[in-house]
Amino acid sequence: TSKASAASRKAANMRLAAPTLSQCGTCGNMVLPHRVCPKCGFYRGVQVIELQDK
Question: 35 falls in which pLDDT band (50, 70, 90)?
């Protein structure tokens, strides 16, 4: 294989993808999937972490 062809294959796999976001069911904040919402502390309808008011 030529250097150009190898570089083309490598470049095709190095492209960045935008992170997928889902909406928190409790507060509506956009969060990464399968993560606790940093705004309200809920995950799948259960409060997992207690947040302090600032």
Answer: very high
For residues 30 and 12, give the distance between their C-alpha atoms in angstroms, rounded to a whole number: 29
Instruction: Output the CA–CA distances (angstroms, integers) from residue 51 to 21, 32, 35, 43, 54, in the order listed.
Output: 22, 18, 15, 13, 9
Q: Residue 34 corresponds to which tokens in the numbers above?
A: 């399968």
Number of H helices, E strands in the chain: 1, 4
What is the value of pTM for the model shown?
A: 0.62
31 phi and psi angles, rounded to 5 deg: -135, 160
Helices (DSSP H) in 1-54: which residue ranges?
3-13
Tokens of 4: 């150009």
